[in-house]
Each structure stands twice: as C-alpha cells, then as structure tokens.
UniProtKB/TrEMBL annotation, chain A:
Its main location: membrane. GO terms for cellular component: plasma membrane. PROSITE patterns: ABC_TRANSPORTER_1, ABC_TRANSPORTER_2. The lineage of its organism: Bacteria, Pseudomonadati, Pseudomonadota, Alphaproteobacteria, Hyphomicrobiales. Signal peptide: none annotated. The keyword Nuclease does not apply. This is Simple sugar transport system ATP-binding protein. Pfam families: ABC_tran. Keywords: ATP-binding, Cell membrane, Membrane, Nucleotide-binding, Repeat, Sugar transport, Translocase, Transport. It is a peripheral membrane protein.
UniProtKB/TrEMBL annotation, chain B:
The chain crosses the membrane at residues 6-29, 66-85, 92-114, 159-176, 206-225, 287-309. GO terms for molecular function: transmembrane transporter activity. It is found in: Cell membrane. This is Simple sugar transport system permease protein. Its main location: membrane. GO terms for cellular component: plasma membrane. Coiled coil: none annotated. It is a multi-pass membrane protein. It comes from the Bacteria. Keywords: Cell membrane, Membrane, Sugar transport, Transmembrane, Transmembrane helix, Transport. The lineage of its organism: Bacteria, Pseudomonadati, Pseudomonadota, Alphaproteobacteria, Hyphomicrobiales.
Amino acid sequence: MSLDSPKEPAIELVGIDKKFGAVHANRNINLTVAKGSIHGIIGENGAGKSTLMSILYGFYHADQGEIRIFGKPVAIRDSQTAIASGIGMVHQHFMLVENFTVLENVMLGAEGGQLLRKGVATARKELKRLEDDYGLEVDPDAVIEELPVGSQQRVEILKALYRGAEILILDEPTGVLTPAEADHLFKVLRVLRDQGKTIILITHKLREIMAITDTVSVMRRGEMVATRRTAETTVEELAELMVGRRVLLRVEKGGANPGKVLLSVRNLTVKDSRGVTMVDDVSFDVRAGEIVGIAGVAGNGQSELLEAIAGIRKPASGEIFIDGQPAAGIDPAGLRDLGLAHIPEDRHHMGLVLKFEEYENSILGYHRDERYGRGAMLDLDAIRKDAEEKIAKYDIRPPNARLRTANFSGGNQQKIVVAREIERDPKMLIIGQPTRGVDIGAIEFIHKRIIEMRDAGKAVLLVSVELDEIRSLSDRILVMFAGKVVGEKSGEAGEQTLGLMMAGIAA
Amino acid sequence: MDYFDIFISILGSAIRLSIPLLFTALAGLFSERAGIFDIGLEGKMLASAFASACVAYYTGNAWAGLGAGILTAIVFSMVHGFASITNRGNQIVSGVALNFVAAGLTIVLGQAWFNQGGRTGQVPPEGRFSGIVLPGADMMRDVPIIGPLYANVISGNNILTYIAFLMVPVSWWVLYRTRFGLRLRAVGENPGAVDTAGISVSWLRYRALIVTGFLAGFAGTYLAIAQSAAFINNMSAGKGYIALAALIFAKWKPVPVMFACLLFGFLDAFANFMQGKSLPLIGEVPVQIFQALPYILTCVLLAGFIGIARPPKAGGVPYAKER
C-alpha cells in the first residue's frame, strides 16, 4: 500500500503480523509514510490501529514483518529502542506523572546523569527552545494535574521532541480535547511537519483526517485496506472503506406495531470517569412493539448512554422513565424489577463470569428470584434444570450446564446472556453489540429472538456499531455523533445517508 | 525528681524508641513510593534482628551483625519483589506471608541453635553498638536546660541512632535530587509513564526494594544488638506496623516521617512512664490507651481530619504491560 512519493520514506512497515490468542489484530500490514508528511490511519475501534502503533513503539512485538526507519531496518525491542530510532508517541491516555511538574515529566527517562541538577538546567533551556520553535507554550514549573487537558497533551508532545523524536505518533489525540484545543493541536502539528517532522495520526474521526493529513490509510479488521492521498479522496469513500461492505444479513420481519411509550429518556447527560461529557442532552422514546436502533461510530457516547439506562453509570443530569416510572439513578437490580433487561456490550466484562459454570451464569442477576432458592440458600437442582431448558431452547452448544463458561465459543456465550435476559419476559430490552464476535449462525438466531421480542409487544433499544445490523433490525434509527443524537431516520434509511450522519457531516 | 528531669528522661527514651520506627518507616517509604505496598516490614525487622544477633553472638563484631541484618532484610525484600513484581501477586498477601515466615523461622532456628526457648545467646559487649559520649557532654551537663538536653538526649546514643537521623536528609536527597529518586517517585504514581520513557519498571522497583531491605536491616539490628543484647521472641512487637502508620501519618515524605516517628516514639515512652501512675482527677490510665494512640492518630488522619493523605497512585497494583 504505498503511494509514489518524491520524498524519502520515514517509516516502512513490511508484512507486519500480530495475533493475540485467537484475535488476529494485524494481518500482513504494509505501510509507507513519507518524511515530512502527516499521515492519517483511520479505522473503527478494534480495527488494529493501536496495536500497529504499539508495535512501532516497542510495546508489542510483531509475530512477523520488518520495520524500516529512514530506510534502515530496525529491531524495535522496547520503547527505548523506539525512542533511540527517533520515534515518539503521544498516547491516548497520557503517560504523565500527575503530581510531577512539566519539567520533571519531560526529563523522566532522559535526565542526563545520576543527579538531577544539571539535567534540570538543560531541560529548562531546551523547553524554551521548543516553545520558540514550535509554539508549544507550557509553564515548565506547573504541576500536571493542575493543567487543562490540552496543555497536558502539549507536555506529551514536548516529551517526545525532547527525546529527539523525528517521527511523532498521535493516538486518538482529539478524543479528550475541546474543539478549540483540537484546532491548536492541528496548528502545532502543521508547524512540526513544516519543520521536517513526520507525523502519524490515528483516529476514527473522518473530519480530522480531511482537515489535517496529507495521506491516509484505512484499516479494517486488522487489515490495511487502502491508502489514499487525502486531496484525492472523499469522506464518503473513506467511510465506506472503514465500515466495509459486508454480506447483508437481512432478517425477515413484518411491520412494527408501536404501542405506548415504555422507555423515555429526557435531556440525559452522562460523563465518563475523566469528567468528559460523553452523552450530551439526549432525549428519545422507545415504544412497546418497536425496535429503536442507535447507530454511530464507536466512541460517540452510545456505550455510556446504554450504561446510564442500565443503571451502571450515574447520569450527570436528565431523566429516564421506564413505563412511566422515574428510573434514573436506580441500580440494575431495581431496574430489573421495573421490567428492564440488559444485554451488555461486553459479555466478558459485564455479561458473564467466565470462570463460572454455565448454569451459574444462567441466573446471574436473577439469583434472588424465588424460583432459584429460598432465603440465603440456592436451589441448585432447580437452577440446573432451568439452565438445561434454556440450553435446549437456545441451542447452546455443547449442551452442558456444568461446563465452564470460558470454554464456550463467543456465539454460545452470547446465547447464554441472551437466553438469561429474554427468558425472564421483561417489558423492555436494551442490547449493546448483540452479535460482536459471534458466528453467522448465532447472529441469525439472536436477530430472530430480538424480533420475536418486538412482536410480543416489548420495547427494544439496540446499540450496535455494525450499521448493517442496525439497518436490518431497527424500525427507527437514531444516529449519535459526539454525544448527541444528530438525527432520526426510518429503518429503511440508506447506508450512505446514515454514514454521513455518523461522520457528523449531515444531519 | 523535678518535672524537667522527668521530661528529659522521657525524651531520651522517646529517641531510643523511635529509632527502629524511623529506619523501618524510611524503608517503607522507598518501597511504597515505588508503588509496592510493604506490610512485611515487621517481618523484615524481625528476621534481620535475629540474623544480626546470631552473627554478632558468634563473631563478637557488631558491624558483622549489622551486615547480616541488612543482608537478611534484603533477601526478604527480594522474595517480596519476586512475588509482587515478577509474578504480579498480591502485595498484601506476600507481605503478610513474609511476616509469618519471619515469626516462625526465627523461633525454630533460635531454638535449634541456642536452646533457650527462642532466645539467642547473650551478645558480648564488643558485639553490640553501645552509647557514644559526644565531646563536651560532661562539661555541658551543668549548663541549665541545654546541658541536660545535650548530655542525656543528644549525646550518649549509639552510632545507629545518629545514622538513623542522617538517613532522613539522605533519603530526601535521594528521592528529590537524583535520577533514581525521580524515577522511583514516577513509578509509584504512573508506571506507564516510566515504561513508555524506556525505563524498566521491574528493575526500578527491585532496586527500590533493595533500599527498603537495606534500611529495614538497620531497624532489626538496632533492636537486637543496640537496644538489647540478644534476640528475643517476637521482639519487633508490632513496630513494623506502627512504622507503617507513621509512614501514612507523614504522607510518605521523609522529613515528616521523622517527626511522626518521634511523636510515636514519644507516646511509647510516655506510656512506659505512666505505667502504674495515676493522673490527677482521672486516676490510673490503662497503658493500652497510649499504645493505641499511634493507630488512633493514623485513623483520624486517614479519615481526612488532618489534611489529605494521598498514597502513591499506583501503590498495590502490579504493573502489566499488556493491555
């Protein structure tokens, strides 16, 4: 995937391959980045961008492949060799010591001797020079935790430059920045490029790619699918390359028959643990007998919205009503009593305890139910019998309630969760990524169950980053971008229309 | 005896009682600032007390005893490191386990070697650290106020006491003025920052633990062959935990650690003094009240009444590179 370039390449990756267990994070990646350019790498979350850059920075080792820096093959064993080869990295989550000053953070690892005194003087002088050269102004004696996020990021850039970085990798740099801070960052990046530095920008935001990069590569499912000159491509093309055309999995379903409002969200705002607003003043309703899908590129607030409705994350403000009852701030057990079932996005972290046997997971969260025991005691026979019924009904394989959950395949694990939540006959169901990491057969099965729920008069809220899934299941589609619902379309809306909305371009 | 003499005597006793606390708390400081909780300070102290007593008994050389004490504490430290750094085990469990090992091993070995119910033999005078009379102490004795203070509190202590107080500025200097100190403080706050700067997190933490063992070795040696003349069963008697309390009380900073240890040492001395005496109006106060005070004060501190005690952010969390 290289473009003819008059400039010499700063980085050449040849045949990089990396597996984490069964996950093939990078497949035979080839990439060439010209010196003195800004190269964007775009792709959805989990496409393998961060893994690739971690390999380049010596955090992981590639299983196969070669890395050449300025034409010379280098073996990047650890971050130290990466730094020595002139690579600097600005991590998505800053690698700063928060109670240190800017100066101390910049010096860390490049102190220039056993004692600090001489190094402090050098660092102070060098910081002044970098500030003058690149417009990176930060007070060297300020303590990191007292600085705004944008300044903290500048410290990260300064750290890399102080170590003599010629190639700068920025991993999702604007995720935590305000628009003004992002503009400032782009200004700095242009200055750096004009002075001959090479910059790699990893992002899933199309707009940033168009605004700042010279060339762009698209990654999808661990593969480098295309490289373009930014000036010669369009947002539409990139969006399509990013999401990829998939085999359409259309599910047979009749028209919706919406009844009364079962879930009502009003002016909901949710912040993440860093205090960044992830869901911004969102309002919508879900009625009985309809499926409402929430589309969006991962990381635009869908997860936080789902968690807030499920009672896992406390909303910063706003209201949630389930069947007319106020539900914001109620814990998940209380919400279950109100008739809400939740299939979480990540079955490994939230939906299941992988070390448990299947039957134990089959009642997780419903273990207080009188069918499964009395008082403090569990009725194991009843639970196992119940688990075996679900195994038969949902065709969970292998049909063994005593098997450790970790030993089931992804699709069967997901079926365990789906069976548990649906079989309790809830009034409404909220689902995150129902078929992530699930084989085709199980996808079809799960989709059918979801539609059955709708036809039985339940309200279904569906969040998925798979646009095809959203389109084939939903009766109405809400598109989220940067924490806001930017538009609503019918279930028949075209991929192109939705794609543009997901990129924040059209409303 | 007038009140001033009593005060001087309590103060002298307070200094002696605070020395093992000071060494141990400084030992814990290096470990915890590097992000490794060390509940095993008690065990290190005990094991090194035993080792120093044994070696001093056989060699009759106090310095050889100190060397053995230090070496033993470092070995214990390295076991803690192997469990909690290399194998990413639970630091509390590892520390508690080492405390049990130390408590059991010292008794078993002591009984096997000396047959005195867990005691070691009486260490000969030349195998002990004895008091050093500072120049002019006798001359100064008659000067009011300063005289007795100098002669009875400052002078007349053994060399380890002076080393303990010297360790305070040295620790401060190492932590805040050297590359090792900067990296050590960084690794206790955000090991990711250290790792991405191209520094080995494990090796850095191991080095911190070596320093911890080194200082804890002084504490044990002080107990066995400076304060006493033999190892006695469980002679650390919870001092490792009080030192840990002092460390928290001092918010993990060297100079405040010294004051916290002096305060706790003073409370201890005061408790000894108050034994069997009655206070006006209140009557006899149970000695346990004073013994509990260090812990009570630390709890009050942790509850947020005396400023905020913010432990090193990465403390207790094993560092895993793979995310």
